[in-house]
Recover the amino acids of this structure.
């Protein structure tokens, strides 16, 4: 799957390869989640913040413009939401991220179908995590987990 959207995602991710993951934050509206919800594999959120030694990456969703599917995953260097509109939750102790914090990013692979990126597989020295999009951002252990949700 090589598309303009995939190239845009990778353009944001490539500079972070080799950098250490310092923090992870779940970001959502205050009525969408609580601290207790963070370990729930079905948690939906507006965006996920990866803080690397060289800068931040926000993984979030976007509406497709003219594509077959309604939503796609996207990466940004700043939030697409207004300041103060989202609650931030420290996700460093969430099972998906616990072993990854402090590790360098080895690679990031975009996956999808029909030129539409649905997710990103982040691989670190100690493991990997997949982040995908529907009408919210989803976090799972593997791309297969995200695919089953479609």
């Amino acid at each position: 799957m090589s598309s303009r959207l995939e190239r845009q995602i990778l353009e944001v991710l490539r500079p972070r390869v080799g950098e250490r993951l310092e923090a992870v934050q779940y970001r959502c509206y205050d009525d969408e989640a609580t601290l207790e919800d963070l370990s729930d594999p079905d948690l939906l959120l507006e965006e996920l913040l990866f803080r690397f030694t060289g800068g931040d990456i926000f993984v979030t969703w976007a509406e497709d413009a003219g594509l077959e599917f309604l939503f796609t995953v996207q990466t940004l260097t700043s939030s697409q939401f207004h300041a103060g509109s989202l609650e931030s939750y420290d996700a460093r102790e969430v099972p998906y991220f616990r072993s990854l914090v402090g590790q360098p990013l080895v690679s990031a692979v975009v996956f999808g179908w029909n030129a539409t990126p649905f997710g990103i597989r982040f691989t670190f020295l100690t493991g990997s995590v997949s982040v995908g999009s529907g009408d919210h951002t989803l976090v799972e252990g593997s791309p297969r987990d995200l695919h089953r949700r479609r």
About this structure: The first strand starts at residue 21 and ends at 28. The two ends are 18 Å apart (CA to CA). Confidence is low (pLDDT under 50) at residues 142-150.
